[in-house]
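Entry 12.
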Amino acid sequence: MLDFSSPEISVIIPAMNESKTITRVIQEAKKIHPNSEVIVVVNGSTDSTENFAVKSGARVIHFLAPLGHDVGRGIGAKAAKGNILLFTDIEDSILKLFLILMSEK
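Predicted 3D structure (tokens):
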């Protein structure tokens, strides 16, 4: 039985004005491990990024001010519960690379 109160992997995604892509990125992040959490740190967004992230099942931390990706990563890391932290940005292809590597095991 999986214990989602203590996920194996936390995927942390800082996001600002990413309403067009956040759903796809969250869906990909959820494929990484069956016992994982996805944390989206929405900062400075003026669009619907937060709403799409919530609807996609991510744990969302929201800030009105733009903090930048590095600060967003740090905030996400402090909130993460996983044994392994995976940081990615909307533009990164790290999720695809990670999925490819995991599928080869």
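Annotation: Strands lie at 9-15, 36-43, 59-63, 84-87. The chain has a mean pLDDT of 86.
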